[in-house]
Design brief:
With about 450 residues, the protein is of the alpha+beta class. The chain has a domain of about 230 residues: Outer membrane efflux proteins (OEP) (Up-down Bundle), CATH 1.20.1600.10. Helix content is about 60%, strand content about 15%. The protein is built from nine helices and eight strands. The strands form two sheets. The chain has a six-stranded antiparallel β-sheet with strand order 2-3-4-5-7-8, with no helix packed on it. A two-stranded parallel ribbon has the order 1-6. A hairpin with a 2-residue loop joins strand 2 and strand 3. Helix 7 packs antiparallel against helix 8. The longest helix has about 70 residues.
């Protein structure tokens, strides 16, 4: 490990331990807090919000005032053929109306008569109004509306991305806990087997037990040691996979220290930490996938309105008041320039086809929304049933563990009195080990099922 990583690890561990009164328990809530705050993929998901803000700023740029100027001059054979200058200041407004102030100054011996202006130039102040296409909706207005909807869409997509990161991180945590519990279980029963083996050896020395019992006791010790070695290998891999989700603020990866262990009462607090509290009254009202589909439909509806607007004739009216700069305060309303532009395709085949395609896209998205809603409802119901089933299975298995423990304790007492055999003891213990392994596996399945429900609900906050 690099020195910088080591320093960050030394900084991390006291902070983690301090929250638990100097305990080495690394709780699931603390772990998830680190993932939410520092993991690079979480930071990447949060960029979606910044991206949407930039898109909105870009769309609003279509309404920025514009300053324009053009100057052309031609000199030839000591003659000023023409000198043409025009400058303008335009203010686009919401309903397609544009306000314009301009100044023109042209001169020259070969200037076009229509460009002939007073010596001081000519100022104008005018307005352009679309009364057909573009009045109630146009490209600029549609861009703003879609950019605002894009913010909602990116927020929903950010929540889906964040949910997936937290799902993967949480999955690694529960696998770490399972591996840790299995190692602890095999250590306990290896110790029991070793104590029993030592007792058998002494009994053989005193002549109370046959020598063959040492072989059977030794087989049990070596079997438990082999199981423990395999479990420790799984634990090592689980810890390394878990470390993939531990980072510092400066994007430096961390490794989990060996002395840390997972939360022991994880089952009791798991749903609360994931913010999945009420399993009976779950609603899809704010589900990010549903919100994303609804937002996409709203964006398509903006496009539909824009396409429908193209069926109208394009009629643009403009009026400009003209005045010389020195006489600007002397109003002469008879000095003006007006314009009318008219455009209308006779068959509108292109426009009608584009509108129909826009409607079909909306219908397609609405069908997808209906399917996704039903699919999510079925997934939620399935996960609820699965969680309830694992809860019942754990209760039954807990009774089996208690029963096998009683049977083993009773057999131990009989063995001490010489009324039982090592074979029966091992048989009872193997049954108890299997029941306890089932207990660990069922708890893991319960946590995995709860985690899958969190994934389906996609509520990472």
């Amino acid at each position: 490990m690099r020195m910088k990583q080591l320093l960050y690890l030394i900084t991390l561990i006291p902070f983690v331990m301090g929250a638990q009164n100097n305990s080495n328990e690394f709780t699931f809530e603390e772990y998830l807090g680190y993932v939410k705050k520092f993991h690079p993929l979480v930071k990447q998901a949060n960029l979606k919000i910044t991206e949407a803000q930039a898109e909105l700023m870009k769309a609003r740029g279509a309404f920025d005032p514009k300053l324009e100027a053009n100057y052309n001059e031609k000199q030839y054979a000591n003659s000023n053929y023409y000198s043409i200058f025009d400058g303008s200041f335009k203010i686009p407004t919401w309903y397609g109306i544009e306000i314009k102030a301009a100044f023109d100054n042209n001169e020259g011996i070969y200037i076009n008569p229509e460009n002939t202006l007073p010596n001081q130039g000519l100022t104008s102040l005018g307005i352009a109004v679309p009364i057909g296409q573009g009045l109630w909706i146009n490209e600029r207005m549609a861009g703003i509306r879609k950019a605002k909807l894009f913010q909602k869409l990116n927020e929903a997509e950010r929540n889906l991305m964040l949910t997936e990161v937290l799902f993967q991180a949480s999955n690694r945590y529960i696998l770490w806990k399972r591996s840790y519990d299995e190692v602890a279980l095999y250590k306990e029963f290896l110790e029991n087997a070793q104590i029993r083996y030592d007792g058998v050896i002494k009994s053989i020395e005193f002549g109370d037990k046959p020598a063959i019992d040492s072989v059977e006791a030794g087989i049990t010790v070596r079997t438990r040691a082999l199981n423990l070695e395999n479990a420790e290998l799984k634990l090592l891999k689980a810890k390394l996979e878990l470390s993939n989700f531990l980072w510092t603020e400066d994007n430096v990866p961390l490794e989990l220290e060996d002395r840390l262990f997972p939360q022991q009462n994880l089952k009791e607090t798991f749903l609360e930490t994931l913010n999945v509290l009420n399993l009976e009254n779950i609603s899809l009202e704010n589900h990010p996938k549903i919100n994303a589909l609804l937002t996409k439909i709203d964006m398509l509806k903006v496009d539909q309105k824009l396409k429908a607007n193209s069926l109208l004739p394009k009629v643009d009216l403009s009026y400009n008041y003209l005045s010389e700069p020195s006489a600007f305060d002397n109003y002469r309303f008879e000095d003006y320039k007006i314009g009318v532009n008219f455009y209308f395709p006779l068959f509108l085949r292109k426009e009608r086809a584009e509108l129909k395609l826009a409607k079909l896209k909306i219908q397609d998205s609405e069908l997808g929304l209906d399917f996704e809603t039903q699919s999510l409802n079925n997934k939620i119901n399935a996960q609820q049933q699965e969680i309830n089933s694992f809860t019942k299975q754990m209760a039954i298995n807990n009774q089996l563990v208690a029963n096998f423990t009683q049977m083993l304790e009773a057999e131990d007492r009989l063995f001490e009195m010489g009324e039982s055999s090592l074979f029966i003891i091992n048989t009872r213990e193997n049954s108890l080990v299997s029941a306890k392994l089932s207990e660990i596996a069922l708890e893991n399945s319960y946590l995995a099922s709860s985690l899958e429900l969190f994934r389906v609900l996609a509520n990472p906050e």
